[in-house]
From TrEMBL, chain A:
Keywords: Membrane, Transmembrane, Transmembrane helix. It comes from Actinoallomurus bryophytorum. InterPro entries: CU044_5270-like. It comes from the Bacteria. This is CU044_5270 family protein. The chain crosses the membrane at residues 56-76.
UniProtKB/TrEMBL annotation, chain B:
Residues 29-95 form the RNA polymerase sigma-70 region domain. CDD domains: Sigma70_r4 (cd06171). This is RNA polymerase sigma-70 factor (ECF subfamily). Belongs to the sigma-70 factor family. ECF subfamily. Residues 131-179 form the RNA polymerase sigma factor 70 region 4 type domain.
Length: 346, 199
């Protein structure tokens, strides 16, 4: 037996992988392909978007909203039967967030003046629980495309929103309640919120965010202000990260620090394949609290933030099958404007 | 490179099409991902292999615009990308080889324990072989393993590594000589002949 034969046999017990063994690699490639096919036109602006309260009684939600909602919904078009694979190691999540931090300068940076507005466009899906006349709860998934103008400095009461409410989706096994159709069509421009009672240290306007630390350890401290420690604190810190990414915009230095700080949050995992509300596929980092997983989705190639979603992964107060998507946001663009549109009188 | 000749005949066509229709690139993955992943796993172990294999196809996908369409067989190109990415893990590779050399247990194949029959048959010269592989210069190990494990011909290995065929030939000759020397000390029953490699 010569050295070549021995070398051929060396580690020959490593099997030829089958399709199941290549799922991770495949999904990452599919993400990149889907992204190349659909997302290229959006390039140009950094993107962000944040769910806020709408006027017509919808709960527009981050995970926090989903956590408190008494109801759940399922995005039928997002294959709830196939929950994505979770890798439990934090190292992989840290790697993704580190790449996101390294790549913050890939998107051109915006420099809004304090008197200007940041304009965010996005597509959303949120669970709505409404109470019918007889007191019975009904549930459905509200969908929409929205543009929000938020002042670069100051609270959201000076913000303006325009929304196109799309056809609702059903919660499986339940009829879509009649009121779900009431708001279909265009709304606004109207005031984004009537009041904004956000605590000072939780503000997400540009002026506030651009004063945050650029040092990851200090940013981490900032995320945990008044939270203490433990799983609930981790879940809230994670939600706060989302609040700074969605319908919020911060300078690249702070954004990089935010991603590095997020990587230090305990229990953060990777979801190899996640789809945002616009159908764009990406790779996500996620944190799970009481059966609900809050995922921040990035493009698999350049690790730009795409959007977020909340997925049922275990027993939760909201009764929904595993794999149900409760909320979903696709951030489509961020830009700067001198003025917000005039608000229509109601 | 032989049994897949029918499929690989039109790799260039698939890659060309994928420039307009990115989805078409899935076919390249289907054809080569199993081989690439097994190759990387044999060198680095299953954990690093997952990342390297995924990155190989992502990189290939991004670089598809620069692929030379006169090369109908994409195999050398993909192995070249994988080799390049594995370069970042060279310390891991060598460390694992040294563990096997020292302890007789191979961390790379530990998770494939159910195939113990095959492992036993391979084990006898494993530690020595591992030590010999670890001692090779990186470029020599790359060339040798591309040919023996990756099934590339010498010209294909040259293409993958971006070097001349003569360089591949001399690297492999020297690598083989070193392996023979190291193995010879362990197994006196081995038939050792000085032979010139030819392709």
């Amino acid at each position: 037996m010569n050295e070549m034969t021995r070398l051929e046999r060396f580690r020959s017990e490593v099997p030829l992988p089958g399709p199941a063994d290549l799922r991770t690699e495949e999904s990452r490639l599919l993400d990149a392909m889907a992204h190349a096919a659909t997302v290229r036109p959006v390039r140009g602006a950094g993107r962000t978007r944040r769910a806020r309260r709408l006027r017509f009684g919808l709960v527009a939600g981050l995970a926090a909203a989903a956590l408190t909602a008494g109801v759940a919904g399922v995005a039928l078009h997002q294959k709830p039967a196939a929950p994505p694979v979770i890798h439990a190691e934090n190292a992989a999540a840290a790697r993704i967030l580190t790449r996101a931090a390294d790549n913050v300068s890939e998107a051109p940076e915006l420099h809004p003046r304090p008197d200007q507005f940041l304009v965010f466009t996005s597509q959303t899906m949120n669970t709505v629980d409404s109470v019918e006349q007889g007191g019975r709860a009904s549930h459905y998934l509200s969908r929409g495309k929205r543009t929000i103008w938020l002042p670069a400095r100051g609270d959201a009461t000076h913000g303006v929103i325009e929304e196109e409410v799309l056809k609702p989706h059903a919660y499986p096994g339940r009829p879509i309640p009649p009121e779900a159709y009431e708001n279909i069509g265009r709304h606004g421009p109207e005031k984004a919120v009537d009041e904004d009672n956000t605590a000072d240290y939780l503000r997400t306007d540009y002026a506030h965010l651009s004063r945050l630390p650029t040092d990851p350890a200090k940013m981490y401290e900032h995320l945990y202000i008044q939270l203490g420690t433990g799983p609930l604190a981790d879940a809230r810190a994670w939600d706060y990260v989302g609040g700074m990414l969605v319908e919020a915009y911060m300078p690249a230095a702070q954004r990089a620090a935010l991603f590095r700080a997020a990587a230090m949050i305990h229990g953060v995992t990777v979801v190899r394949s996640a789809t945002d509300a616009a159908g764009r596929r990406g790779i996500a980092v996620a944190s799970t609290w009481k059966g609900l997983r809050t995922e921040y989705i990035f493009t698999p190639e350049t690790y730009q933030f795409l959007g977020l979603r909340t997925v049922v992964v275990g027993p939760t107060r909201v009764k929904a099958p595993v794999g149900s998507v409760l909320t979903s946001t696709a951030q489509l663009s961020v830009s700067v404007a001198d003025h917000a549109p005039k608000v229509k009188r109601r | 490179m032989s049994e897949t000749s029918r499929a690989e005949a039109d790799d260039a066509a698939v890659i060309g099409r994928s420039r307009q229709e990115p989805e078409a690139f899935a076919e390249v993955f289907r054809r080569y991902a199993p081989d690439i992943k097994r190759y990387v796993t044999r060198r680095l172990g299953p954990e690093a292999a997952e990342d390297v294999a995924a990155e190989t196809f992502l990189a290939a996908f991004r670089q598809r615009g620069g692929y030379d369409l006169s090369r109908r067989n994409a195999r050398p190109w993909l192995y070249g990308i994988a080799t390049n990415l594995m370069g970042r893990h060279v310390r891991t590779e060598v460390r694992q080889l040294r563990i096997l050399e020292r302890t007789g247990t191979d961390p790379v194949t530990a998770s494939f324990a159910e195939r113990s029959d095959e492992r036993l048959s391979a084990e006898a010269s494993g530690p020595t072989l591992a030590g010999a592989l670890a001692a090779l210069p990186n470029g020599h190990r790359d060339a040798l393993l591309l040919v023996v494990w990756g099934d590339l011909s010498y010209p294909e290995a040259a293409q993958a590594l971006g070097v001349r065929v003569g360089t591949v030939r001399s690297r492999i000759n020297r690598a083989r000589r070193n392996l023979r020397r190291d193995l010879g000390g362990v197994n006196p029953m081995a038939i050792v002949r000085e032979e010139t490699t030819h392709e």
